[in-house]
Specification:
The chain has 317 residues and is α/β, with parallel strands linked by helices. It has eleven helices and eight strands. It has helices at 24-34, 39-42, 67-86, 100-111, 143-147, 162-173, 196-205, 212-218, 220-230, 265-275, 299-316, and strands at 4-10, 45-48, 89-95, 117-122, 186-189, 208-210, 236-242, 281-287. The chain has an eight-stranded parallel sheet with strand order 2-1-3-8-7-4-5-6, sandwiched between helices. Helix 10 links the parallel strand 7 and strand 8.
C-alpha cells in the first residue's frame, strides 16, 4: 500500500531545558525556502496546538518541569497522530523537544491498540529517565519511560511530590492502561550519553544500542538488517530521529544537548533512508532542532531539511 505523508508541525518546547527548540519548524521552513523546495507545498500539513505560553510562568514540579501542561500537550499530539492514521496517512512529525515522542507513540497505539510497536531511536541520549531518576527534571529526557510506564524505582534518587506523581501517572496512561511499548522492542542507534539509571534499564532489558563506532565498523546496511531482526516480531515500527545523534563538529551545535563523536551526515542519511524503506514503518519524527544555539547560522536546520526531504520521498515510493 502506498504511504501518503501528512506533516504534523509541533512547536512545543515545554520539555526542554534550553529555549529555542520550538523554533525548529520555522527554521526548517527557512531552509526549504532558501533551497527553493516545494516540500511544504508537497504535503498537507497540520499545526498542533502548543502550550508554550506556560514557559513564562513559574512551575512547582521540579522533578518533572511543567508536567501539568505537558499532559495537555500530549493529549493534543496523540489525538493528532491517531487522526492522521485514521485518514490513512503516514504521520511525518516535525517536532520541537523530544518529550513529544511519548505522545506520538501513544497516538500510534491508540490507532493500533492490538499491534506490537517497535521503536527505532536515533539519538545521542537514551531518554529513559523518570521523575524519580532525572538529574534535570526536563521531560524531554523521559519519553521512553513514559511510553513503557517505567518509574525505575530501583534507581530512585529524587523524592517526588504527590502533585508530580499524580501528573506522571496520568502521563503514562495516555494511550491506555497497558504500556505502549516494551523495552525489548526498542533499538538505539547512536546513543552515547547516558546516566546510571538509564544504564540500569538498558542492561536489565538487554536493549540493543548500536553505538557510533559499531555503525562505522559494521556499516549502515548491516546495522539496519540487525535492527529489523531484533524487531522482527513487531507489527509496526516508529522511527524517532533526534538531530543530536549527529556529530556537532561536522554539522553544527544547533540542538539543545549536543554530544561529540556522533553519526556522520553520510551515515545518517543512509541509515534513515534505508530504515524507512521497510513497510512496517508507520510514522517518522524529527526533533530538537534549535536555531537559537546554532553556531553556523541555520546549518542544523539546513542539514535536517536535506535529510527529511530525502526520507519523505522514500516513504512515499
Amino acid at each position: 500500500m502506498k504511504r501518503v505523508i501528512e506533516l504534523l508541525e509541533i512547536t512545543s518546547e515545554l520539555g526542554a531545558g534550553t529555549r529555542g527548540a520550538g523554533l525548529g519548524v520555522g527554521a526548517l521552513k527557512v531552509a526549504a525556502l532558501n533551497k527553493k523546495s516545494d516540500f511544504f507545498a508537497r504535503y498537507p500539513s497540520i499545526t498542533v496546538r502548543d502550550f508554550n505560553e506556560y514557559l513564562f510562568q513559574d512551575y512547582t514540579t521540579k522533578h518533572a518541569i511543567r508536567i501539568e501542561h505537558i499532559l495537555h500537550e500530549f493529549v493534543q499530539i496523540s489525538g493528532s497522530v491517531c487522526s492522521s492514521l485514521e485518514r490513512g496517512s503516514f504521520p511525518f512529525l516535525l517536532s520541537g523537544d523530544h518529550s513529544t515522542a511519548a505522545a506520538t507513540i501513544a497516538g500510534i497505539k491508540k490507532y493500533y491498540p492490538t499491534s506490537k510497536l517497535g521503536v527505532i531511536w536515533v539519538d545521542a541520549h537514551a531518554d529513559f529517565h523518570s521523575p524519580y531518576t532525572s538529574p534535570s527534571g526536563n521531560v524531554h529526557g523521559m519519553p521512553l519511560a513514559i511510553a513503557a510506564q517505567m518509574d525505575n524505582l530501583e534507581q530512585k534518587v529524587n523524592d517526588v511530590s504527590d502533585e508530580t506523581a499524580e501528573y506522571w501517572r496520568k502521563l503514562k496512561a495516555i494511550g491506555g492502561k497497558e504500556p505502549n511499548i516494551s523495552p525489548n522492542d526498542i533499538v538505539y542507534i547512536g546513543v552515547r550519553d547516558t546516566e546510571a539509571p538509564e544504564d540500569y534499564i538498558i542492561d536489565k532489558y538487554g536493549v540493543k544500542n548500536f553505538k557510533v563506532d559499531e555503525v562505522k565498523e559494521k556499516g549502515v546496511d548491516k546495522v539496519v538488517e540487525e535492527t529489523f531482526n531484533i524487531l522482527d516480531d513487531c507489527d509496526i515500527i516508529y522511527v524517532s530521529f533526534d538531530v543530536d545523534s549527529m556529530d556537532p563538529e561536522e554539522i553544527s551545535r544547533g540542538t539543545g544537548t549536543p554530544v561529540k563523536n556522533g553519526l556522520s551526515l553520510v551515515d545518517t542519511k543512509h541509515l534513515l533512508n534505508t530504515i524507512v524503506k521497510n513497510e512496517k514503518v508507520c510514522c517518522f519524527e524529527i526533533v530538537e532542532i534549535n536555531p537559537c544555539l546554532d553556531d553556523k547560522i541555520n546549518k542544523m536546520a539546513e542539514t535536517a531539511f536535506d535529510i527529511i526531504d530525502e526520507v519523505s520521498k522514500i516513504v512515499e515510493h
